[in-house]
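User: Could you check the structure of this?
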Amino acid sequence: MTQDDFNLRVTRRDYCSIIIVKPDLIEIGIENDLKEIIKQNRLKISLISKIVMDLEFVKEFYQWDKIKFPKEINEYLCDKKLSVWFIEGDNAIKKVLNIKKYLRKKYSIDEMHNLIHCPDSYDDFKREYRLILDKIKNCKMRTNNQIEVILFKRRKKEILFLILKRSIKKGGFWQPITGGVEENETFEEAAIREISEEVGITENVKLIDIDYSFEFLEENIIHFEKVFGLELSSMQKIILSEEHTEFKWVDGSTAITDFLKYPGNKEGFRKLINFLEKMEVNND
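Assistant: Sure, the predicted structure tokens are below.
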């Protein structure tokens, strides 16, 4: 069965469900037992796929306002490929929920290490199914490395810098282009990919390495971020992704004092401004 075939069945209320197989179930060796229990309940595994979670996805998926134990959750669930089983059969949601309760009662060692996840209701299934499909489309391992790209353009003797406003769901603050470096990806490759994804620019991407990077702590995880610059022509258009809601071209001082939130981003702007000023002096 293909994903499209399964999609056709999703609209049948309570006929489909999802199981995310967590690492502790694999470690104690009861994956085959789970498959047998599914079979005994007259259900079938129609598809098996993989996703890679990060803390932002975990928070959205579980609808948590805040992750209480980010370091522990990151070590348990994130940056590793987790199996997702797509389940079919009558009363699938109720049956899989009962299977989860049975396994947790018998094997779970604590509240966090709880073997599998499944939706509690049809509404939960629809929401989680959509989120999982989005993840499957880009199932790549993330690292703790980040990139930042500051776009700028020249207008007569003035240099203007691009700032982007994140969606409310993603914080609603202003920033340059940022993103994570994926497994087997260089900082430069990640920067070029993020430029394409966030502002739709794919041609004439000549990164400026300003020799600046910094570390920051997020959810008790240390991240390393490398900063690049990129000069655009006045003809290049900005096409925002769903991650951002608007953009502005502002001078460097305004960006730093009035818009940017994080110290590392502000210092990145200062470093790029100094870099460009030195270039102007050398050219003179």
